[in-house]
Every structure is written in structure tokens, then in C-alpha cells.
Specification:
Length: about 190
DNA sequence: TGCGAGATTACG
DNA sequence: GTAATCTCGCAA
């Protein structure tokens, strides 16, 4: 399998452009990961659903930094969610990785997700589940996805994004609910809501 | 310094 | 339908 690290410039574009192109890319942490099959775009100070909507804070600081880094946040007292930072430095955008299709290290994922039951499509079919399955937490906030140092990378596995990804509104938000900034691989069983 | 809400998950 | 669980960010 060919697998090349994505370039910084791949991420240095509008999140609404990058998001559908992230579908079928490989998210890997230390040999454990899979194909991205569901994403949501968040567009900084123009997007009322974004954590950055009300300006820069310690929590959302990474989103204001250079593209190609990982923004990890903790929510509901128990879950981590991870995003890829996009656009130019100073503009706070992120793409929430909502679901992946397990490909590598599936047994490791299963051990980390004892509540997943049978079926690979329960291992990482949600943003909190991904971080459990890939062991991503706040220590990975700001990790560089281009450099290999962090152990977390987004790779081009040689699978093209879908020519016609499914698109709809984002999940779990109160504001900006009308914006159609969620994309997923149509029919994939790993998508968080089917 | 206090308090409300949260880009969720799992179980009843 | 709703409990679990804790951090952040704004208001006072």
C-alpha cells in the first residue's frame, strides 16, 4: 500500500474544501488507525458553532496556529475529540474527525474499546470513540500531523475521496445548525449516524 | 470564585 | 430518554 504524509499546503485551505478531501485518508497513531469516513468543518470567527467563535482562549489556542496540527479537546467530562487545523495561521479553523473505518491495529483498538461489542464498525464510529481507540488525549493537543515525531499522521493511502460524498448538517451543536458542513462516505457502516 | 453548558457515549 | 463526569469560559 502506498502511504504518503499529506503536505502542509493540503491543510492550508478553507476547512470546507479540505473536509471532503479528508475522506478516505488514513489517520494513524503509532500503527493504529483507519480510513476517515466522516468529518465536520468548523470555520473560526464566522461560525457560531466553533470553539473559536468568541476569540482565542487557552483551550482553542492550537486552532489559531499553523495548519496541519491536531486540535484535541475534552468534553462532557469524559471524552476527547480531535480535529485537524486548517487554513492560514491566525485563522482558527478545524475539521472534526467523527468516524474512521478501522484498518490497522484492530486488536489494539478492541482492547481499548471493551464496550464496542462485536463488529469493527463500533470501534471508532464517533469522535469520542476514535480518541479511545487510537489513545489520543490532551497530550496530543497541538501535535504536528506532517512530522513523524508525534506518532500521529494523516496519510494518503492511495484511496481517492468519494466523487460524491454525502453532505448534511453537523451533529451535536446548538448554533450554526443550518450550515451543511458535515461530509461522510455514503453507506459506510462506520459513520456515526446511519 | 461560582456556575452553566458542552462538536458524546452507553445503557435502560 | 437520560446519567455519567469535569473542564472551560464567562459573569459577578
Amino acid at each position: 500500500m502506498t502511504a504518503e504524509v499529506l503536505s502542509r499546503s493540503f491543510f492550508a485551505r478553507d476547512p470546507q474544501v479540505v473536509a471532503p478531501e479528508l475522506l478516505n485518508k488514513l489517520l494513524i497513531h503509532n500503527g493504529v488507525g483507519g480510513l476517515i469516513v466522516e468529518v465536520e468543518a468548523y470555520d473560526g470567527d464566522s461560525d457560531p458553532a466553533s470553539h473559536a467563535y468568541r476569540g482565542r482562549t487557552p483551550r482553542n489556542d492550537v486552532m489559531f496556529g499553523p495548519p496541519g496540527h491536531l486540535y484535541v479537546y475534552f468534553t462532557y467530562g469524559m471524552h476527547y475529540c480531535c480535529n485537524t487545523v486548517c487554513a492560514e495561521e491566525g485563522r482558527a479553523t478545524g475539521i472534526l474527525i467523527r468516524a474512521i473505518e478501522p484498518v490497522q491495529g484492530i486488536e489494539t483498538m478492541r482492547a481499548r474499546r471493551p464496550k464496542a461489542g462485536n463488529g469493527d464498525h463500533h470501534l471508532a464510529s464517533g469522535p469520542g470513540k476514535i480518541c479511545q481507540a487510537l489513545a489520543i488525549d490532551r497530550t496530543h493537543n497541538g501535535a504536528d500531523l506532517i512530522s513523524a515525531d508525534s506518532g500521529i499522521q494523516v496519510l494518503d493511502a492511495g484511496v481517492d475521496p468519494p466523487a460524491h460524498p454525502a453532505q448534511g448538517t453537523r451533529i451535536g451543536i446548538r448554533a450554526g445548525t443550518e450550515l451543511p458542513w458535515r461530509w461522510w462516505v455514503s453507506g459506510n457502516r462506520n459513520v456515526s449516524r446511519r
